[in-house]
Amino acid sequence: MKTFVFLLAVLLCTSTVFAGSLKVKKSDYAKEWCFSFNEGELSCDVGAVFIESGGVKYALNGAAKSRGKEGGKYKKGYADAASAQTQSGDLSFFLEKGKTLCK
């Protein structure tokens, strides 16, 4: 029983670290949009901010980059946001918006 209570407490504590995700679309953020895709899902997990589109999680900050890499290379399904970024726009807007999901 003690083990169950401990595991439940751990799950409850860790679930508050991941606050959720937010669907974002180019049509809603036309001025700030800086990606080659038209929509994605912004998320934050223990300080690591990602935007996911087309089955790929793009790392928006250093914590996300280190989480997505293994042996110095990106794991399958992960990439650097620079690979999806267009020439116009800045990641900082989406990085800050993503950070709010961890609070």
Structural topology:
Layout: H1 2-15, E1 21-25, E2 39-45, E3 48-53, E4 56-59, H2 62-68, E5 69-70, E6 73-74, E7 78-80, H3 92-99
Parallel strand pairs: 4-7
Antiparallel strand pairs: 1-2, 2-3, 3-4, 5-6
Mean pLDDT comes to: 84
Whole-number tally of structural domains: 1
Unreliably modeled segments:
4-18
The Rg value, from CA coordinates, equals: 16 Å
Strand content: 25-35%
SSE pattern? HEEEEHEEEH
Query: What structural category characterises the helix and strand content?
Result: alpha+beta
Cα-to-Cα separation, first versus last residue: 32 Å
Please work out how many helical segments DSSP would assign. Answer: 3
Largest sheet: 5 strands, mixed
Name the strands of the widest sheet in spatial order.
1-2-3-4-7
DSSP helix fraction:
25-40%
> What characteristic shape results from the CA principal axes?
globular
Annotation, overall tally of beta strands: 7
